[in-house]
Amino acid sequence: QVQLQQWGAGLLKPSETLSLTCAVYGGSFSGYYWSWIRQPPGKGLEWIGEINHSGSTNYNPSLKSRVTISVDTSKNQFSLKLSSVTAADTAVYYCARGISGYSGPLYYYYMDVWGKGTTVTVSS
Amino acid sequence: SSELTQDPAVSVALGQTVRITCQGDSLRSYYASWYQQKPGQAPVLVIYGKNNRPSGIPDRFSGSSSGNTASLTITGAQAEDEADYYCNSRDSSGNLHVVFGGGTKLTVL
Question: Best mutation site among A110, A112, A114 for testing chain B: the one with the most B CBs within 10 Å?
Answer without folding.
Answer: A110
